Amino acid sequence: MIKLAVFDFDSTLMDGETIDFFAQALGIGEQVSAITERAMNGELDFFESLQQRVGLLKGLEFSKVEEICHNLPYMQGAAETIAELKKRGVKVVCFSGGFRTATGYAKNILGYDADFSNILHSKEGKLTGLVGGEMMFNTSKGDMLQRLQALLGITKEETMVVGDGANDLSMFAHAGRRVAFCAKEVLKKEANVIVDTKDLTQIIEKVF
Known about the structure:
The protein has 208 residues and is of the alpha/beta class. The chain has 10 helices and 7 strands. It has a 7-stranded mixed sheet with strand order 4-3-2-1-5-6-7, with helices on both faces. The longest helix has 13 residues, at 140-152.
């Protein structure tokens, strides 16, 4: 019986990496996406790679950040899957190593109950290249999951997590159902449910 479902955002609930869309607006898409790829494969420390990538965004207009976040392509089946889980009485939460401007906006569209992510620092309408928040480290998702489980009185066996990259490993350690969604090999090794098609509704079919 699943009572809590935690989804990653970038490349899970959303089809792509938010930070890569920001980088494209500055003409540095390839440079940033190369760092993102290495971080998601577990080749780089997540905290260091996040600081490095956000630093490259310095000077980007915050209005552009919001515009991009309000037009992100959501993953096929995201809203339907969340709606089905909630119908079954499951609490649905989003953990993202990305940004509140994206996850907070998507919350009302996709229907999850809460989001935990990072905040891009801006000053005088532009990004400063600094970032802070709840999901800054390799261990952040696992740490937050344990706190949520304690708060809600939900066990590891009653928890499902869904992700695609290395920074999802820490939450995989504390969930009975571990779904690797179109995931990197480093995460697939720790999963007990694997979905390789970009359609989140397959999770419902495989888990329930």
